[in-house]
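fold-stage: in
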Amino acid sequence: MKVAIMQPYFCPYLGYFQLVAAVDTFVFYDDVNFIKGGWINRNRIMSNGREFLFTIPLTDASSFRLIRDTQVNWRSKDVEKFVTNVRLSYRKAPFYNDVMPIVDAIFAAHPDTISQLAIDSVIRFSQYLGIATRFKVSSEGGYARTDDRVQNLINILAAEGGDHYINPIGGQELYAQEDFARHGVQLNFLKGTGSLSIIDVCMNNAPDDVKELLKNYTLI
């Protein structure tokens, strides 16, 4: 069974969804440290004809705090500004009427943490695209934890019955295939397609066309 284990990102790029669609089970790795300056609460859309880097505001974000414990700052006006920016930037996009309600629903849920907000965004867009992957959350899975980064992944794979672990291409710098092979696990790295946020992709492309784009990756 193919499994991916990845930190939850808010409305991530197409390559993230290619990883989701490539596996049977996708585990949101939310009980690891938040990455400041990473892509957990940031991405890019088009605004006024230019790429715009948006950031979901957080309360006391720290690389010493777990993702699941990192709170969204709902008091910040930047949340409403972002939704308004999406609405104005894509109001003439061909699939605005289908996609804007998804964005509105994600924010209407008003979860406490960036983990919950990001997970919800991935699940909602996956449903929109008809991705049948099963989702799990690491902090809810009861997986055995150690001080060894690889062993923690092996424990999750074992619990989920995974014998094929697919990791984003950036993982080549962190993980060696032989370390997983010793546990009977095949490790491959997914080289996917770069893009703006899935919001942009779905605003401008029909769901069936996005489904075809989801297949446009290679495994190394």
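fold-stage: in (second)
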Amino acid sequence: MSDRLTGFRVAILATDLFEETELTEPRKALDEAGATTVVIAPHPGEIKAAHHGKVTSHTVKVDQLMTEADPEKFEAVLLPGGAKNAEALRLDQLAQEFVRHMDQMHRPIAVICHGGWLLISAHLVKGRHLTSYKAIQTDYVNAGAFWYDKEVVRDGNLVSSRQPSDIPRFNQEMLNLCIDYHLRSHAAA
């Protein structure tokens, strides 16, 4: 276990039918680096996982409700995919406001697969370099993004990946982005 991200708080915005490995694997990487991860959802209790769109028996405990979430209390945000999860979150005004605030503060935003739908709905992708699940490539392009078919794309405070098979590279770049931000914010303090 590392302590590179000790004291670093990461919001994980998700709801039912999130793609299981796209939440659990990046969360594990962040936790192992010393970060504190907080699952924020629109409803209390637990959120249900999916594996390629099919409901699994796995659930994740909700730590905080979207209505209570204050982006000022977080240094980064993780947006896992899963089409149903992403479709629900992209319509959530509070989720949109949360990611807008994180972007305005230049805080790390890590997004994988369909998770980028929230960024599109929040009007945060125009002129940005990103990747996603190929099925939503046109959504990115229509919103003014530069879309790439690569394992991982980093653009300023954004890091994005396409799918579960990209998670090892995604985790590496997400951690690099968070560590860079953490070191800069401590140096400025």
